[in-house]
Amino acid sequence: MNNEQYKRLSKIQSGLDNYIGESKGIDMKDYKLERIIALQVEFNELLQELPFLFKYWSNKEMNKEKALEEFVDGIHFLLSIGNDLNITDYEYDRPEAHDMKKIVFGIQNAISILPEMNVPKPMYNVLMHHYLLFGEKLGFTTDQIIDAYMSKNEVNYARQESGVY
């Protein structure tokens, strides 16, 4: 994801977050920790779609479409958290790590320390780099991620309007 793509999605996410805040009558700044928790939950939901990573006893295959949907749910919260942290620029820098299981632990660790960070931008960048690398390892292209994000963004607006989540 290049900086132009990041800025575009970040702006779109900001619009959704503002819409949610206004429609619920809440100040989204008061819900920063909840979005970090939501990111952790969404990442765990993604992992549930990847039995090859941990279900050594199972022959279940990955459902790539469902995995992409869960991956993009995480992107929504990553962008929202980036907006909370006033991250206005981001450029994907592919990490050296390549073992999927170790990347999982790295992502989980980075998420868990976000609330305690004194200098959150470097940790946010590390988290985003590894999250995007994880998606890359799952076979998702940047275009697929962006297209899925845009589709899910529409779904998220519709859910807010209908009240059905």
TrEMBL record:
Xref: Pfam families: dUTPase_2 (PF08761)
The protein, known as: Dimeric dUTPase (All-alpha-NTP-PPase superfamily)
Organism per entry: Virgibacillus natechei
InterPro entries: dUTPase/dCTP_pyrophosphatase, UCP030140
